[in-house]
Write a structure and sequence with these properties.
The structure holds two protein chains of two kinds. By secondary structure, chain A is mostly beta strands. In chain A, about 15% of the residues lie in helices and about 45% in strands. In chain B, the strands form three sheets. Chain B has a six-stranded mixed β-sheet with strand order 1-10-9-4-5-6. In chain B, strands 2-3 form a two-stranded antiparallel sheet. Classes of the chains: A mainly beta, B alpha+beta. The interface between A and B is large, with 43 and 37 residues.
Chain lengths: ~180, ~200
């Protein structure tokens, strides 16, 4: 009985979606967005005040512990990173997630984690992430994710960040993503 | 890598034999890749999140859960550490009877200070070690460790690191006993740890 009700509901949903399709061909729904809790690893504001003043910062305060932090002079976004996950559901045409942004991080990229032969590889999706017409793509740990680099602060469980997702067809969509421990 | 495959194959064959022997009992360690006989690991000393050099030998006396990764890693590494956290929770009062160790394959970025903030975010008792090229090369064959820096097109990161994603369970004598592939459930790992704690 329950199953037939579910089936009916599903059919009803399908019919509705079909009706909606001709008018809103770029409908994109974002389900269950969340961001992994993370700490701003590189900056302990008070202890490492010298760090942000470039590669040759003189460590005025007790050079010994912070001296190691500056070597290399990498142009990496400081401050640790995190990743955002969600399900992108297209009820219309095919679309493509091109980029994303948030105040919570200085750099945001769309990446894919691949595990081949036990080796983890992470690759940026330079052409964005394709969502098939009427289909969905899941961003989840160990797979596609929106990588947040250079956190501007700690991401603590219970907080929420605003993410702006830029789609080729659907344009910019803002979502609120709660911070969770995986 | 080849050496590791050989280890895996050998242990697979051995566990195959064990399955047919009449006295073999169901063994919960089977859900990972059981290393039989256990591999005696090369000792090493690295700077650690404890603010001092730490050696593998010093960790003896307790089983150790070990993972190689780097803090810039977006999801496989934090997920594994989250799983370690769940294992510790599952173990209850025995949670502290185990070492939880994260060895960085990115010593350039992962200084002891960075590692301390990173691992302690998962659990204050977790320990991070700053790997260096020479040490990792020397001990890597014990673990079938693979890691490689690269800068793929389209990233603002200075570099990313491809690396092995397995976790290792060491016994209290510092010997490798089980290898868990990425995604193994915390419950499975918990059972493996409990088995070692009962030895």
């Amino acid at each position: 009985m329950r199953r037939s009700i579910a089936l009916l509901l599903w059919l009803f949903g399908l019919v509705l979606a079909a009706c909606a399709a001709p008018t809103t061909t770029t409908a994109m729904e974002i389900r269950d967005p969340w961001v992994r809790a993370a700490v701003n690893t590189a900056v302990a504001e008070d202890a490492m005040a010298g760090m942000e003043h470039g590669d040759n910062a003189t460590n005025s305060e007790s050079g010994e512990t912070t001296a190691g932090m500056n070597h290399g002079g990498e142009s990496m976004p400081a401050g640790g990173n995190s990743a955002a996950y969600m399900v992108l559901v297209s009820s219309g045409n095919a679309d493509r997630l091109l980029s994303a942004s948030t105040d919570a991080a200085t750099t945001v990229e769309i990446h894919e984690t691949q595990i081949d032969d036990g080796v983890m590889r992470m690759r940026p999706l330079v052409d964005g992430l394709a969502i098939p017409a009427g289909g969905q793509v899941e961003l989840k740990p160990g797979g596609y994710h929106i990588m947040l680099m250079g956190l501007t602060g700690d991401l603590d469980e219970g907080e929420q960040i605003t993410l702006t997702l830029n789609f080729e067809q659907a344009g910019a969509i803002e979502v609120q993503a709660p911070v969770r421990m995986p | 890598m080849r050496y590791f495959m050989l280890l895996v194959l050998t242990s697979l064959m051995l566990s195959g034999c064990a399955a047919f022997s009449p006295e073999a009992e169901p063994n919960s360690l089977d859900s990972g890749t059981v290393i039989e006989p256990p591999v005696v690991l090369t000792d090493f000393t690295l700077p650690s999140s404890l603010g001092r050099d730490l050696s593998l030998r010093e960790l003896q006396g307790k089983p150790t859960l070990l993972f190689f990764g780097y803090t810039f890693c977006p999801d496989v590494c934090p997920l594994t550490l989250s799983e370690f956290r769940k294992v510790k929770e599952n173990l209850g009062s025995d949670g502290d009877a185990v070492n939880y160790l994260f060895i960085s394959v990115d010593g350039e970025r992962d200084t002891p200070e960075v590692l301390a903030r990173y691992v302690q975010n998962f659990d204050p008792g977790f320990v991070g070690m700053q790997g260096d090229e020479a040490t990792l090369r020397r001990i890597g064959k014990d673990y079938g460790l693979f890691y490689q820096k690269n800068t793929p097109e389209g990233t603002g990161a200075a570099y990313l690191v491809d690396h092995s994603s397995a976790s290792y369970l060491l016994d209290a004598e510092g010997r490798m006993r089980v290898v868990y592939s990425f995604g193994t459930s915390p419950e499975t790992i918990t059972e493996g740890v409990q088995q070692l704690l009962e030895e």
